Amino acid sequence: MRYLVTGGAGFVGSHTVLALLDAGHEVVVLDNLSTGHIQAVPKSVEFHHVDLLDKTAIANVIANRAWDGVFHFAALSQVAESMRKPLKYFYHNYLTAFNLIQTCIENNINKLVFSSTAALFGGENRVDPISETDLIQPGSPYGESKYMIERILYWADRIYHLHSACLRYFNAAGADHLGRAGEDHRPETHLIPLTIDSALGRRPTLKLFGTDYPTRDGSCIRDYVHVSDLANAHLRAIDQINDRSVVYNVGNGQGYSNLEVIESVERVSGQKVSWEPAPRRQGDPAVLVADSTALQKDTGWMTNFGSIDKIVETALLWREKHPQGYI
């Protein structure tokens, strides 16, 4: 099969590219490298430095070629930034997805897997674990922008028969267990790599945003899913959309608090983590845990790196071998 991957130089996108290659598929990557890294794209992969705001550039890659499907990862993804710059997120995430979807329709591509988010479920009145049928109530412009794209895809299916899989995944974490790819955001905002760098003495005291949530230890609880397990979910999902569209939550099904993540990093690394409390961030719900029953039932998907210690172990190996990331 030949697949197009947008954002294939980013964290989840690059791991999905590896999963596709491991399965014997041909991959073409589009990325503007605003947050991704060219070093994360295997040299065997055809790469195009394209911004999805440029519809002509997208068409130049897609047109006159046969495609078996598209994986769309490219997006702005920082919740806190979206609370400060909501219009930036609505403009960029919506328009880039719109351009891609329209180009797919114009070129008779009928399968697209979309990188959605658990940030759709931002309401405080929900019950965890969260299922696909729970109330959609984004708690941030980032989450809202993703839901807007889901609605485009809903109508693209009904009217143009572009079948899609919207994967609402929770906290992607970890790294390829063979060391081929890892997490390298600039600036880094994710808890596990920040905690690891603190344990390794590479950054100042870790700030823990919110210690007064109504949880078992006062810190946020999140569902961490290993990035390679997440990549595998994408491959399984695209096989489900030959004649229909689907929506799946993708998570580990178990929540870990921020303090429990710190404890895991200390266990795995053998080092103490220096941390201090900080005010809550806007848009952060107290608990986000996934019910992935539908994905498991339809596809047989299971996690290979289910425990927080296994996730942290792969992330730690990556950070130790790549202290400067992909540089």
Automatic annotation (TrEMBL):
Cofactor annotation: NAD(+)
Family annotation (InterPro entries): Epimerase_deHydtase, NAD(P)-bd_dom_sf, UDP_G4E
Gene Ontology annotations of biological process type: galactose metabolic process
Pathway of action: Carbohydrate metabolism; galactose metabolism
Domain NAD-dependent epimerase/dehydratase per the UniProt entry, residue ranges: 4-251
Catalysed reaction equations from the record: UDP-alpha-D-glucose = UDP-alpha-D-galactose
Keyword ATP-binding: no
Pfam families: Epimerase
First-tier enzyme category under EC: isomerase
Domain of life: Bacteria
Entry keywords, A to Z: Carbohydrate metabolism, Isomerase, NAD
EC numbers: 5.1.3.2
Keyword Isomerase: yes
Family of the protein in this entry: Belongs to the NAD(P)-dependent epimerase/dehydratase family.
Name assigned to this protein: UDP-glucose 4-epimerase
